[in-house]
Fold each of these.
Amino acid sequence: MVRFENVGLRYGSGPEVLRDISFALEPGTFHFLTGPTGAGKSSLLKLLTLSERPSRGLITLFGQPMSKTPRAEWPGLRRRIGVVFQDFRLLDHMTVFDNVALPLRIAGYQEKKVKEGVTDLMSWVGLADKMGALPPTLSGGQKQLVAIARAVITSPKLIVADEPTGNIDRAMSMKIMRLFIELNKLGSTVIVATHDMVLVDKLQKPVLEIFEGKLAEASWWMNPDSPDRLGTPRADHPLDAAPLDDNPFA
């Protein structure tokens, strides 16, 4: 699905902000991306979403070496990537329905299919009663759910989320992460950038850790002091509130 080989990135004539980045993401996997502020997470996400080109090295997406892929084909590849931004980037003058429908309309779907797809998805995430609302009237958690719905409405093969729980409370964070888990179970490859090590520790997914522009070896996040390492549930953790099912908001 994704392969980076000795990738470096610099902006203009400045120093490299990413150095010798190498990793691979298999189809249908779920990874966290962690690291301190300024370590290079945002720059790595820009490369993953084709917002930037590397200064050196090779990036392969969906089996295609990007250095050999004509720029004219990049928009088509971007449509196979669902991006969830930390600041939502919703269009405030458009209803929730129209925000979520936008990728389908850009892709040329018939309006009947647009209505069916958006209605089903908004019902699934628990916001069927908000489709006519404008984004400024929503809570932070509701805005994030709308942003995620917009990102996944076209069933992207790769989902990239930048701090999706950074601006919401713990209960809503649980709902968001359960949604990503369900999308992953449906076949999407998911990478979530986060500072929330409680979620990382709880979910026990592979972690890509970046520090000062370099990537540590991908590993399973295992806190030796965590009860979860021994299989003991933590009743006070929101992700223990309910088992996963076909609808994370049922």
Note: The chain has one domain: 2-240.
Amino acid sequence: MIDASKIDCAAVLGAGTMGHGIAHSLALTGVSTRLYDVDDAAAARGLSAIRANLDKGIEKGKVSAEQRDSTLERIVATSDFDAAIRGAQLVIEAVPEKLELKCTLFARMSKALDADVLLATNTSALPVSRIAAACSAPERVVGMHFFNPVHLMRLIEVVRAEQSSDSAVKTALDLCLRMGKDPIEVRDTPGFASSRLGLCIGLEAMRMFESGVASAEDIDKAMVLGYGFPMGPLKLTDLVGLDVRLGIAEHLARELGERFTPPQILRDMVAAGKLGKKSGQGFYPWPR
């Protein structure tokens, strides 16, 4: 397995919220990165989002204009899957949370890439061992669960699948440190550590809102001011996406029991297209 310090070419599959954030962080670190999505427009939107986030960083004095320009120069947005992964020493998958889709992608890229290429999934809850099983040389597969917004959040969960080699896990952990992140290592169990704990709080906040205990704003304020959370659980749900949280809750309910059963309000809001920030409405309005 390649040493993390020598990774200079990577591919990120999926240019959505998580994917473009991962590409941003890799390129800012100095890694040439191909940002792939299924069509050119989606890939271009991801690149535009990176540019906008870098511009905000300049406004806040956290990023220089030179850093912005060099970061953008390292990123190529593409809808050509083969070109995206060709020559990559690292591939991080950040497509929608559908196990079959992820397995298909991992099977496809594992056939095209050498066995020492690190393959990582950004899944927040799906079994990494199942994804690894779709690959040749499954020992090079790990989970790298980033947090939104990726370019600002320091935590990464490195998930050790049943097949993951020690060298693959070490490379992933070292890469996190190289990116200026603070990783934790967890076993491949349903919901890992963060999704399992965070979702419990989020689902209970939804039940409280559903039963009229308090407004969304006041429930969130209780956790921010009372427990030191940087953001309340309902606002966080809006940022993550209600559809994403529903999918995770349904998966954990199957794996861990009824305490993760999604509340009806979550199902109703997703059915109504109220998905949070990306749709313009969730527990909060999000002007677009």
Note: Residues 40-59 form the longest helix (20 residues).
